[in-house]
Each structure stands twice: as structure tokens, then as C-alpha cells.
Design goal:
mainly beta, 15-stranded mixed sheet
């Protein structure tokens, strides 16, 4: 595989508190773009969404990206998540599925992923510290499920496009076609997202990924790369 299957990936949000505020943007990060909502401890017990696997465009060097849903990771070091990866390595695009519970390393899902595939993901608290992670590829008719233990604070829920940190180094964001998130849900309901819940990715003082405003229902949006 061309993707890195060893080493530590870190998907927690790296907020940029020094960047100047921008209109209709709630937060700025060096590795996240998309939407995040926050609440008190134990507020979030279920998150889900649908999205399309983006196409990776050629880049000059190695670049990485992920699209995922998760609970926690925003202003804390805990995180349970699942999603798809889309990288450009040695002149070739790679697509894959994965899940992760920090501080453990990412676990790759050995099932086929191709650009344009329609994904449906959910993370559900079952009982106690038992959580169900489910990722479905609707286009290729497979469903992956795993029951795992997680004890994070449950203070945030996310729908994110990201440039992951690999072995402590922030990866260059891959050049992607737009990622469309739809049917976003939290605790089984529409999250009623607002522009203030959205965040942009800023790498080397340059905006590299930015979400649209939410749709009218507050449960969908598009993340677009800003290619220089």
C-alpha cells in the first residue's frame, strides 16, 4: 500500500488562536476544516453523516487528507472517529477507509474505496463505555462495524475534512474535489449548524480548505480546497 500503515496519526484539532477572525467563520485550524459543535460533558452520544469520497488531484509532493465524523477532539486530546483517506504519494492517488480512537494508532479497514463512492458513517454509544463504529460504502455495498471501548468526555461532535498529523508532523493538505456532507445528525437529530460552527484550514498563512455555509436545514455543507 502507498499509504503509511505505521506510525502515530493525530487527528485532534490544532486551533490557530493567533489568526485574525474572519467573517462567518467560527474557528481557524492548521489541520481541520468543516463543522464542529460543542457542549457540556456527556452531551454527545451519537454522530452520523453521509459524504462522497473526493478525487485526489496531482500535487508536487506527498500530500494527505481525510474526511470523517467524530466525537471529541475539539479542544481536548480524546477522539473517536471513522472516515476515508485520500492521499497523493509518489505520483499516485490512494483511497482507503479507517477508524481511530486516540491515543491508539489509526486502524485501516481492508475494504475497497474509490473516488465518487457514497459513504454513510455513524458512531453510537451503546452502554457504559461501549461504542459502535459503523462505516458503510453504499456504492460498493459493504458495511464495516466494530464495537470498541471509549471513555472520552463527549464534549464535541464533528464533520471534518483534514490534513492529518503523522508522527508529529502536519501533512500537506491533498488537493481534492469538493467533499459534500449531507444528512448530518447528532444524537439522532439535525445539528442545526450555523456559520459560527464552521472552521477553515490555514497552512503556512494560506487558506487551504474552507466549508460552505450550512444548507437551510442546518445538516449539510460542502468543503472545498483552495488550490494555490
Amino acid at each position: 500500500m502507498g499509504i503509511s500503515t505505521t506510525g502515530q496519526w493525530n487527528h485532534t484539532c490544532q486551533l490557530d488562536t493567533t489568526a485574525k477572525p474572519r467573517r462567518n467563520i467560527g474557528w481557524i485550524s492548521s489541520n481541520w476544516s468543516g463543522y464542529s459543535i460543542t457542549g457540556k460533558k456527556g452531551a454527545f452520544k451519537r454522530v452520523s453523516a453521509k459524504w462522497n469520497v473526493p478525487f485526489v488531484r496531482p500535487s508536487r509532493g506527498t500530500s494527505y487528507s481525510s474526511a470523517w465524523i467524530g466525537i471529541d477532539g475539539f479542544s481536548n486530546s480524546n477522539l473517536i472517529q471513522t472516515g476515508t483517506g485520500h492521499d497523493w504519494i509518489d505520483g499516485k492517488a490512494y483511497y482507503y477507509a479507517w477508524w481511530e480512537i486516540l491515543p491508539a494508532s489509526v486502524t485501516f479497514i481492508p475494504l475497497p474505496i474509490q473516488p465518487g463512492d457514497r459513504m454513510h458513517a455513524s458512531i453510537i454509544k451503546c452502554s457504559g463505555s461501549n461504542w459502535l463504529i459503523c462505516l458503510r460504502n453504499v456504492s460498493r455495498n459493504w458495511t464495516f462495524r466494530t464495537l470498541q471501548r471509549y471513555s472520552g468526555p463527549q464534549t464535541s461532535a464533528e464533520w471534518i475534512v483534514e490534513a492529518p498529523q503523522i508522527n508529529g508532523a502536519l501533512a500537506t493538505m491533498a488537493r481534492l474535489s469538493p467533499v459534500v456532507f449531507s444528512c448530518c445528525r447528532v444524537n439522532g437529530k439535525r445539528p442545526k449548524l450555523t456559520a459560527d460552527d464552521g472552521g477553515i484550514m490555514l497552512q503556512n498563512s494560506t487558506v487551504t480548505s474552507i466549508p460552505s455555509n450550512p444548507n437551510r436545514a442546518g445538516d449539510g455543507f460542502v468543503v472545498k480546497g483552495v488550490h494555490q
